[in-house]
Amino acid sequence: MFSNLRKFGVNHKKISILHVNNMCCCKIKASLKRLKPYVPLGRSYSSPPGLVGNDIKSLHSIISPPIAKIRNIGIMAHIDAGKTTTTERILYYSGYTRSLGDVDDGDTVTDFMAQERERGITIQSAAVTFDWKGYRVNLIDTPGHVDFTLEVERCLRVLDGAVAVFDASAGVEAQTLTVWRQADKHKIPRICFLNKMDKTGASFKYAVESIREKLKAKPLLLQLPLGEGKAFKGVVDVVSKEKLLWNRPSEDGKDFERKPLLETSDAELLKETTEARNDLIEQVADLDDEFADLVLGEFSENFDLLPTEKLQAAIHRVTLAQTAVPVLCGSALKNKGVQPLLDAITMYLPSPEERNYEFLQWYKGELCALAFKVLHDKQRGPLVFMRIYSGMIKPQSAIYNINGNCTERVSRLLLPFADQHIEIPSLTAGNIALTVGLKHTATGDTIASSKSSALAAARRAGREGEKQHRQNNEAERLLLAGVEIPEPVFFCTIEPPSVARQPDLDYALKCLQREDPSLKVKLDPDSGQTVLCGMGELHIEIIHDRIKREYGLETYLGPLQVAYRETILNAVRATDTLDRTLGDKRHLVTVELEVKPIETPSVTPIIKYAPSVSEDLPKVSQEAIENGIHSACLQGPLLGSPIQDVAITLHSLIIHPGTSTTMISACVSRCIQKALKKADKQVLEPLMNLEVTVMGDYLSPVLADLAQRRGTIQEIQTRQENKIVIGFVPLAEIMGYSTVLRTLTSGSATFALELCNYQAMNPQDQATLLSRRSGLNQVL
């Protein structure tokens, strides 16, 4: 074995040793304790994955697997559909863990944060790399909670395929719709896994129907369940007409029987499977012309003669074209159906070279990578997750950050295994890497090998844009494709334990912001307090908890408040003059402008110039005007909330020679504030889409409670024994709703929230809000 290793060392001189940095030793010790005595310790965390006994061949595949054998996939679903449990089973069967982790026990690999283990939910996306039957799989377990949708968004955009996990008893749920829309946006091929087939009330037919109706997708049934609920014992492979049975003696689910369906023993099941296979062939033939020619030509008389490989290749093409989604089923918790899911991932989801990324042609094989996630490690500093689209990345190499316009050096390169990492000497296109040493790179930054390489790519993109009569900025947008960060809906003040600890708090918040771009931190200009802005109650609670645990700061949070917006109801004009003498210089600006409401929602003000102003307006002055407008719209006259849905037209601008741009900005800003005070003002509040799943017995109290919360019910659906209440409710009325709902329904109901839009408050509610904010007790 050592001679083989020496040979390997000659080929790759830079590799001194591949070692694992254990960040979570306690978890490994715990897993060792749970090992059954008869399990051979064939795999060690201190050696590279795949290096078991004399198996040297996988060492080379760790460094540079063939691109056709790489699968970058994500696991996505509604909260509590079984994403993390499915991931744990995948890791166990692929040989990366030696014992089965459990979300309820808090010992899973991908949920490694203390908060995740305590709450039994996924908060951050954890990246895991493993091998399955000669394929390299980079898998990301994403959160299902609405407060952490940005985690899903920023990981989906670097994936080539996804596995959507469904609770077989519930089908498509609220957050499933959200993540499905996100996958549609990034054009990601996906397969569906109907999990929890062993759960009471599980229904394969219902779950498939909900995929067809709610997601408007075409399900391809590749498997049929053998039993449902407690009777679930295995699956039937429709493509190969075999049944897969997990026997009781094999508690961990590693051993299962694959038997062909026979006329003698399984006549009824064989008939059902043959019908399902014929339906599948017809469905695929409708969607794939190449396969349709094959079916109509050679096999039109008898579909049974159609080779399995031909059908699988056609399903792969259909999945890649996103015209249909393969559907599989199983029970991750009961260790059934996970190995066929892994086979489907490698067989039907695309490799990086099968995805068409338009911007790659501009790089001509040079390095092009995207930083999609930043973590902060106390020992190593910032850890940046990168998807490499083309070229190669090596430790100690300089890279150029296009967004930050700076050059940085990668000190080390790691393969991510949740919170444990394997150091490697290089990584090629198609892989997901973890880099150490990048101090300025943030989420959404595009990485190139050098500034000259980036400029050359930009020139090629510009030429391509001109050929196709496109704007140059569209080419730039493709080069610098980032993640759209949603606006926060909650905010609260945060205070350090003492003034002396304020720098420590600032540092902690700076690190957390690099990790999580949906967290915004600002300074209140009036009180000087630090204000946290987040996506929900749980989001802010988790941030507060992390500051305490990871940075040792006992901070104090102010009351949670809703992020309102403001707008105006009528058009107003205003004029303002600013005349100041600083030293021997006179600064004089006169501005006349009009502010009016617009019907189409717009978070930023729409800026227009009258013809007389725009003719000879210098670019410097224009930038100063726009800075003044944007700063004025950050604080409205009613609550100090941002102004939206307004258009501002500049009618007149007189600038004295020598006037500074700062004075121009200040005058424009003051003029807008004057106009806003004169106008009729309106508060806008965030309105949430709400979906409550409740048993029929508790429906009445839940509806009565929502009526008190100014809720609007759209419809009430029936999902087996449960009722699904779908409607809208103002965010201000839903704070603390989880506790109330638990009390009303004896803990049996669940709910999901998602921001819908901002809507105008009625005059009475607005008056109540303003009086409460101004400290008055009585309603105005």
TrEMBL record:
<comment type="similarity">
    <text>Belongs to the TRAFAC class translation factor GTPase superfamily. Classic translation factor GTPase family. EF-G/EF-2 subfamily.</text>
</comment>
<comment type="function">
    <text>Mitochondrial GTPase that mediates the disassembly of ribosomes from messenger RNA at the termination of mitochondrial protein biosynthesis. Acts in collaboration with MRRF. GTP hydrolysis follows the ribosome disassembly and probably occurs on the ribosome large subunit. Not involved in the GTP-dependent ribosomal translocation step during translation elongation.</text>
</comment>
<dbReference type="InterPro" id="IPR035649">
    <property type="entry name" value="EFG_V"/>
</dbReference>
<dbReference type="Pfam" id="PF00009">
    <property type="entry name" value="GTP_EFTU"/>
</dbReference>
<dbReference type="InterPro" id="IPR000795">
    <property type="entry name" value="T_Tr_GTP-bd_dom"/>
</dbReference>
<keyword id="KW-0378">Hydrolase</keyword>
<dbReference type="InterPro" id="IPR030851">
    <property type="entry name" value="EFG2"/>
</dbReference>
<dbReference type="InterPro" id="IPR005517">
    <property type="entry name" value="Transl_elong_EFG/EF2_IV"/>
</dbReference>
<dbReference type="GO" id="GO:0005525">
    <property type="term" value="F:GTP binding"/>
</dbReference>
<dbReference type="InterPro" id="IPR014721">
    <property type="entry name" value="Ribsml_uS5_D2-typ_fold_subgr"/>
</dbReference>
<dbReference type="InterPro" id="IPR005225">
    <property type="entry name" value="Small_GTP-bd"/>
</dbReference>
<feature type="binding site">
    <location>
        <begin position="141"/>
        <end position="145"/>
    </location>
    <ligand>
        <name>GTP</name>
    </ligand>
</feature>
<keyword id="KW-0648">Protein biosynthesis</keyword>
<dbReference type="GO" id="GO:0032543">
    <property type="term" value="P:mitochondrial translation"/>
</dbReference>
<dbReference type="InterPro" id="IPR004161">
    <property type="entry name" value="EFTu-like_2"/>
</dbReference>
<dbReference type="Pfam" id="PF03144">
    <property type="entry name" value="GTP_EFTU_D2"/>
</dbReference>
<dbReference type="InterPro" id="IPR009022">
    <property type="entry name" value="EFG_III"/>
</dbReference>
<feature type="domain" description="Tr-type G">
    <location>
        <begin position="68"/>
        <end position="353"/>
    </location>
</feature>
<dbReference type="GO" id="GO:0003924">
    <property type="term" value="F:GTPase activity"/>
</dbReference>
<protein>
    <recommendedName>
        <fullName>Ribosome-releasing factor 2, mitochondrial</fullName>
    </recommendedName>
</protein>
<dbReference type="GO" id="GO:0032790">
    <property type="term" value="P:ribosome disassembly"/>
</dbReference>
<feature type="binding site">
    <location>
        <begin position="195"/>
        <end position="198"/>
    </location>
    <ligand>
        <name>GTP</name>
    </ligand>
</feature>
<dbReference type="InterPro" id="IPR009000">
    <property type="entry name" value="Transl_B-barrel_sf"/>
</dbReference>
<dbReference type="InterPro" id="IPR027417">
    <property type="entry name" value="P-loop_NTPase"/>
</dbReference>
<feature type="binding site">
    <location>
        <begin position="77"/>
        <end position="84"/>
    </location>
    <ligand>
        <name>GTP</name>
    </ligand>
</feature>
<dbReference type="InterPro" id="IPR035647">
    <property type="entry name" value="EFG_III/V"/>
</dbReference>
<keyword id="KW-0496">Mitochondrion</keyword>
<dbReference type="InterPro" id="IPR041095">
    <property type="entry name" value="EFG_II"/>
</dbReference>
<dbReference type="GO" id="GO:0005759">
    <property type="term" value="C:mitochondrial matrix"/>
</dbReference>
<keyword id="KW-0342">GTP-binding</keyword>
<dbReference type="InterPro" id="IPR000640">
    <property type="entry name" value="EFG_V-like"/>
</dbReference>
<dbReference type="Pfam" id="PF14492">
    <property type="entry name" value="EFG_III"/>
</dbReference>
<keyword id="KW-0547">Nucleotide-binding</keyword>
<dbReference type="InterPro" id="IPR020568">
    <property type="entry name" value="Ribosomal_Su5_D2-typ_SF"/>
</dbReference>
<dbReference type="Pfam" id="PF03764">
    <property type="entry name" value="EFG_IV"/>
</dbReference>
<dbReference type="Pfam" id="PF00679">
    <property type="entry name" value="EFG_C"/>
</dbReference>
<dbReference type="InterPro" id="IPR031157">
    <property type="entry name" value="G_TR_CS"/>
</dbReference>
